[in-house]
Amino acid sequence: MPQRGHTGGWCLFFVAALIPGAHLGRNDSSVNSASNFDLPSGAQIYRPVLQPSESTPHIGTYALTSLAGKPCIKATMGVEYIVIQEKKTWYFNLEPSSVSTSGSCGKDTAVLSLTLPDNAAGLQLTFRMEKKFFFITKLAAHVSPQPVCRTCANKTYFGLLDHSRLFTTADGLSFKCQSGYLLLMSSELWIKLVPLQIQAFTLPKGKYGKEMECWADFNKQVVPVIVGAVVVGLILTLVLTHLFIKDRRRHGYEAL
To answer: Given this model, what pLDDT does residue 248 score?
Structure first.
């Protein structure tokens, strides 16, 4: 009997070692219970470090293929977590080289999950296809950072946007936004996607289709053109007015 108990302990140890989520909880009680396992000395759970100032996130390209080897999702983006903690704003950028990609591909629904080691942070995008248009119907995010102070408790920040129609795009095209998107996930968590390019379901040879720009990018291109046209129009008006006045004065002098 003692030998069986010893063997059971080793089984639990290997389960905890092979499945990172087994020793990472979503709250303090889960973390404390996980600490009852006899982990090797020096073993640490990965936790993101929040920064007091914002920086540009690294851009990663994440792709998902079906079991048949057909590409179904492709996303190129930088991901920034914005956390409200202790009445201050903190930032954390998702590092593409540390991200594990998983998900599922279906006829009308596809899911792309991005996860850091030990499930310390994650972002899940659920795509939906309706009437030859795809969009993100659900966006879920979480991050379990290191406490920002010695007296601060461990905490996991969650956020969810459900029943949405984000980035609606015609099938076969890609949605692109260089300006990025800032999404309110909860009262304590924001997600910024910058830049952003996504496409789902129809991806010939795994490449993006023709780009459909977001309004922010469109306005950045159109507004300068409109302003330039207005300025040129004003200049021409002033020049023509000046020439007209000058011509009338010249005719007035000739009459005298």
So the answer is: 62
Q: CA–CA distance from 104 to each of 1, 72, 90, 125, 138 (Å)?
A: 44, 9, 32, 11, 14
Contact 100, 115 (CB under 8 A): yes
Distance CA 67, CA 75 (A): 19
Q: Tell me the C-alpha distance between 227 and 244, whole Å.
A: 26
pLDDT in tens, 161-206: 998 899 999 999 999 999 999 999 999 999 999 999 999 999 999 9
For the CA atoms of the chain, what is the radius of gyration?
28
Which tokens hold the place of 14? Answer: 């290997």
- Characterise 205 by phi-psi region: left (phi > 0), alpha (psi -120 to 50), beta (else): left
- Looking at the DSSP bridge assignments, the partners of residue 20 are none
- Measured in degrees and rounded to the nearest 5, phi and psi for residue 112 equal -120, 120
CA quadruple 12, 15, 20, 24: dihedral sign = negative
What are the tokens at 47? Answer: 């936790």
Strand-strand pairing, 88-93 and 100-105? unpaired
Show the tokens assigned to 224. Answer: 């300068």
The answer to whether the CB of 75 falls within 8 A of the CB of 62 is: yes
pTM > 0.85: yes or no: no
> Which of 192, 122, 193 has the alpha carbon at shortest distance from 157?
122
Segment 22-61, tens digit of pLDDT: 333 333 333 333 333 344 555 688 999 999 999 999 999 9
